Amino acid sequence: MRRGYLPTYLPTYTHTHAMLLRIPYTAPFTALPPLPSSATTLPAAVTAVANFLAHARSTVVLSGAGISVASGLPDYRGAKGTYTLNKEYRPTFFSEFVHGDRARRRYWARSFLGWRGVEGVRPNRGHDAVARLWRGGWVGGVVTQNVDSLHTAADADLPVTNLHGLLATIVCLTCRTTYPRAAFQLALRTLNPSWAAFLDQLREDPSTPVRRNPDGDIDVPGVEYESFRYPPCKTCLENPAYRGRIPVDNDGAALPSTVRFHSEADTQGHAHVPGVLKPTLVFFGESVLQAVKDEAEARVDAADAILVLGSSLATYSAWRLVRRAREQGKKIGVVNLGGVRGEAEFWSDGGGRVGARYRLGDGRDGVRVEFDVGEVLDGAVEVLLRTDQREKNILAAHA
Ligand SMILES: [Zn+2]
């Protein structure tokens, strides 16, 4: 094991592969040939996507990690849909985070090290193109699986449903107070000077073998996370109702709880200890909030077409939105490198075969292309601004 780059004051342990859990989806999906079948070149793909958008009254965009790759964020899957980036990635599951101080130390340590890679990212031309499509009236709204806030960074007015939450804020599981993640980073830095020194060392030496994950955390093989300290919610600490029930050390960092505290929140399946802070992103093993589900469904229901951008739809909460659109007879478009879950059914004529109107059409009834999201959308916006003279589009061209 390569450990030479680790500062000696960080205790280490041997990585036990047998203990790694797997996240639920790892098998590759088979990619369909392009639709229409003529869309084998970038210009043809651009034209097909432009036709798709031009002939819909309103399209809802469903985006995934693939749209943020050009911003420097990693995708979970490689181009062939396999889980190539980080086979050993073992995410923290919701229940272990909520119930285990140990899991929280591990999570926050990795998140602390990975934060810089997330904080500095900017929207790319894929996000910009989506915003322009909305300004132009072709796109009615966006549902994203990404937790990186980049759609909003591209256009603060763009209607976005963040299906899996956001990384930029943290929330107290007891009192629901939210805090900016950036400020929390400073608190973590203060409580963990040796980790802060390690982080500075990582910045200076980019060749250090670490693995970034799209949720903004980082894997450093061989590190013992137990020494990492994190603070509980300030609001709860000051709440007399919780006096003495939130164990903290002299610096205000959470102490491992040897006693099981049964708070009111506990009966709702939340933390045993009051004041546990969690990022507002949805963890594996955690449910999407009903209000968020409803909003995402309303966006699908309000559109007559759905355009999937940079997602293999491996996550059920995203896939079911496309299934819903299909059940409503809506048009489906996909721009993705690699296969998409169940996509053969999206354009089926009922007999399991892709219908001729999709294969031989011009993209208006359905489109499936395998090119970079930013390139395709950028081109499609240009085509639409030239050719699709909707009244509102003319306004948008000057926005
Ligand atoms: Zn609180």
From TrEMBL:
GO molecular function per UniProt: metal ion binding; NAD+ binding; transferase activity
Pfam families: SIR2
PROSITE patterns: SIRTUIN
Keyword Membrane included in the entry's annotation: no
Residue ranges occupied by any Deacetylase sirtuin-type domain in the UniProt entry: 39-387
The organism's place on the tree of life at top rank: Eukaryota
SUPFAM superfamilies recorded: DHS-like NAD/FAD-binding domain (SSF52467)
Keywords in alphabetical order: Metal-binding, NAD, Transferase, Zinc
Keyword check for Ligase: no
Similarity comment text for this entry: Belongs to the sirtuin family. Class I subfamily.
Protein's name in the database: Deacetylase sirtuin-type domain-containing protein
Organism: Drechslerella dactyloides
Lineage of producing organism: Eukaryota, Fungi, Dikarya, Ascomycota, Pezizomycotina
